[in-house]
Amino acid sequence: MAELCIAGQQIEFCWPSQSQPTLRIPELSIRTGERILLRGPSGSGKSTLLSLLAGVNQPTSGTLTILGTELHRLNQRRRDKFRADHIGYIFQQFNLLPYLSVYRNVLLACDFSAARKQKLAAENLSPEAECERLLTHLNIPKELWRRQAATLSVGQQQRVAVARALIGKPELIIADEPTSALDTDARDNFLSLLQDECQSANITLVFVTHDATLSHHFDRTIELTEINQTGVSA
Ligand SMILES: Nc1ncnc2c1ncn2[C@@H]1O[C@H](COP(=O)(O)OP(=O)(O)OP(=O)(O)O)[C@@H](O)[C@H]1O
What we know:
By secondary structure, the protein is of the alpha/beta class. It has a single domain (about 5-15, about 25-225), classed as 3-Layer(aba) Sandwich (Rossmann fold), CATH 3.40.50. About 35% of the residues lie in helices and about 20% in strands. It contains 8 helices and 9 strands. The protein has helices at about 45-55, 75-85, 100-110, 115-120, 125-135, 155-165, 185-200, 225; strands at about 5-15, 25-30, 35-40, 60-65, 70, 85-90, 170-175, 205-210, 220-225. The strands form 2 sheets. A 5-stranded parallel sheet has the order 6-7-8-3-9, with helices on both faces. Strands 2-1-4-5 form a 4-stranded antiparallel sheet, covered by helices on one side. The chain is globular, with a radius of gyration of 17 Å. The structure holds adenosine-5'-triphosphate. Adenosine-5'-triphosphate binds near residues 15, 45, 46 and 48.
């Protein structure tokens, strides 16, 4: 059986301010290298589940293992390090540092992770060379690399955020609706580039969207309303 990147049993999560759990998921298995579309209506708990996968929040009960590690057993400092080393996160609003250059924004992910730098070094790559390869593959013209990130278009910022998530080949990429501001052509192009990079490095991808028309880009779609036994709350 293929190795699991994500394995969860009886995962339950309740926000401290809420009386009912947002998530109650009996079983969640995602194989290494699988590219998953996670879908569900607004308020169904997609971002909440991503926060558990990234170790930002911990399940209230049950077990959740990411790359063989139960993140809730780590202290905050080791969880942050685990995330920097092994997980690339693409946020809905990209979260680039607006006054830093495109180039520095991408390299930042390596500044925070010796493991990412080591992985590149093992392939005789410098972070700078990999940054340039990714920006080129993601169609960011060279004349933009020294510009402040905030001066780029939304679509360009989105691709810079992908380069930052991918640099140093983390094992897991989590993307929280990064395509919502794109038109259909730009979205398909963006997804193809992201998929290419994940496929070539055997990176597991968990990609959240409302949009069912994107499912053909992925190996498998998980409908949150089907696996979550609390039902939809919105
Ligand atoms: N920080 C928080 N504190 C308390 N409750 C929260 C918090 N974040 C989310 N929730 C609640 O958890 C439930 C699921 O929210 P979540 O953001 O995970 O849904 P979603 O599926 O990602 O929605 P959307 O598609 O609109 O982004 C909602 O009822 C929401 O009110």
